[in-house]
Specification:
By secondary structure, this protein is an alpha/beta fold. The protein has 6 helices and 6 strands; from the N terminus they run ββαβαβαβαβαα.
Length: 142
């Protein structure tokens, strides 16, 4: 698990977990989040490292890769953090197969279909716009 902190700060993104096993995408997301003022960014390439990061304390936001190398149900992280505390972190799903996410889980946050621009994901995470796949579908059908 790799953790970096930014000098400036965005209180809404004081601690962000990136649950992603693609090192190139994880680095791009980390850079985009730090540039946007995230206080601490922890890259978790496996479910084990994600659990270790969650044990250190709550996250303000979590970017979740749905298909990790060690687990094919990355969305279980969303279910877990939803049950753990009184304040659920902002959740964004990152996947090449959005149809694999159960519908009730996909409602927990925007779904970004790979490949995507990390700055768009960060904008959605910060509430600037909701551009995830399901959010765009919802917007298109009214």
């Amino acid at each position: 698990m790799n953790e970096k902190s930014a000098a400036k700060g965005n209180p809404a993104l004081a601690r962000v977990l990136i649950v992603e096993d693609d090192p190139v995408l994880a680095l791009a997301l980390e850079d985009a989040l730090l540039a946007a003022g995230a206080g601490e960014v922890a890259v978790c390439p496996s479910m084990e490292s994600t659990m270790a990061a969650l044990e250190k304390g709550p996250a303000d936001a979590i970017v979740i890769d749905v298909h990790l190398a060690d687990r094919d149900d990355g969305w279980a992280v969303a279910e877990l953090v939803d049950m753990l505390g009184t304040r659920r972190p902002r959740i964004i799903f990152s996947t090449g197969a959005p149809q694999d996410i159960p519908e009730e889980i996909a409602e927990m946050g925007p779904v970004f279909e790979k490949p995507y621009d990390p700055t768009e994901l960060v904008a959605a995470l910060m509430g600037e716009e909701r551009r995830g796949l399901f959010a765009r579908w919802r917007g298109a059908i009214g």
